[in-house]
Amino acid sequence: MQVADWILRVIHWGSALVGLFAFVHALLQRSDAYSAADRKTKPIWMLITGGATLAMVLFDIRDLGLIFWVPAMAATLVYLVDVRPRLIEVQRGRRNW
């Protein structure tokens, strides 16, 4: 196996772990925090992150599965960089420094 194959394999399984982290985080948050953060509901985000994780596990990035893997990774990243920080902010309260 060549170095490029190993790199792609690490990206493939690493992204699945990131998706799993996003799903578990969505699962552990309070339902009312999603509406307080003005985001979609908890079941919707669990469906999005869970489906994205499943897609990243099932579809390989080295073939035509890439057309499913890219949107799945994008959905996971949207949760991690947009929804997660807002949920944390809502649950902890704003801090004025």
**Based on helices, strands and strand pairing, what is the structural class?**
mainly alpha
Instruction: Quote the average pLDDT.
Output: 91
Overall 3D form: elongated
Q: Between the first and last Cα atoms, what is the distance in angstroms?
A: 52 Å
- The beta-strand count equals 0
Which percent band covers the strand fraction?
under 5%
Question: Measured on Cα atoms, how large is the radius of gyration?
Answer: 15 Å
Sequence stretches where pLDDT stays below 50 over 5 or more residues: none
Helix-strand sequence: HHHH
What's the structural domain tally? Answer: 1
What this model shows, in words?
The chain has helices spanning 3-28, 31-36, 42-58, 66-92. The protein is an all-alpha fold. The protein has one domain (3-92). Helix 1 (3-28) runs parallel beside helix 4. The protein is elongated and about 50 Å long. The chain starts with a helix and ends in a 5-residue tail after the last helix. The mean pLDDT is 91. InterPro entries: DUF2516. Keywords: Membrane, Transmembrane, Transmembrane helix. It comes from Amycolatopsis jiangsuensis.
Observed structural traits:
97 residues; mainly alpha; elongated
